[in-house]
Amino acid sequence: MATTPSDSGFTPEDLETWSAVATVLEWLPSALDAQLQRDSDLTHFEYGILYALDSAPDRALRMSVLAGYANSSLSRLSRAAARLETRGWVRRSPDPTDGRYTIATLTASGRRRARQATPGHVETVHRLVLDVLTQPQRRQLREISRRITQAIRSDEGWTPPTEPSARR
C-alpha cells in the first residue's frame, strides 16, 4: 500500500483509519440516542447528566463541574437541566457555600429514571461496542481513547467511580 500522502494530505492508510474513526464518531452517538429516546425518553446527553449525578456524592454537583464532565458549555447544560427539571428528574438551586454557583441535584424520580434507562443503555453499548471486540481490543480501545483525549485537552473529564459502593 502506498505511504505517500495523496492530494488530501493523508496517506491511503491514514485516510482509511481516519474515515473509520470519523464514521464511528458520526454513527455511534445517533445509535445511542435512538435507543435511549425509544426506551427512556432521554437523549444520550441527558442520560449522561442523570448518570453523573447518580454517581456523585449526595447525588449533586455544581453545574460548572457537570459541564466539565459532559464537555459541554454551561448554556447547553442549562438547557438540558431545564428539560430534566421540567420532568422532575433534576432540581437546581444556589450553592449554599457560594451563591455564585448553581447546584444540580438528582431527584428520587430522576434516580429511578436513570436506573430504569441503564440496563438498555448498557445492553446497547455492549452490542455496538464492547461485544464486537476481544478483551485485548477493548484494552487497546481504552488506551487509544485516553491518548486521543489527552491530545485534545489535558484534564481528564468524567471518570467512573473507582469503588462499586460509590454508586448507591
> What fraction, in percent, of the residue positions are helical?
55-70%
Number of continuous helical runs: 6
Rg over C-alpha atoms, rounded to the nearest angstrom: 19 Å
Structural class: mainly alpha
Strand percentage: 5-15%
Report the end-to-end length measured between terminal Cα atoms: 52 Å
Low-confidence stretches: 164-168
**Biggest beta sheet summary:** 3 strands, antiparallel
CATH architecture of the domain at 30-117: Orthogonal Bundle
As laid out across the biggest beta sheet, the strand order is 1-3-2
Can you say what the CATH homologous superfamily of the domain at 30-117 is?
A: Winged helix-like DNA-binding domain superfamily/Winged helix DNA-binding domain
The count of β-strands is 3
How much is the average pLDDT? Answer: 90
Order of helices and strands: HHEHHEEHH
Shape annotation: globular
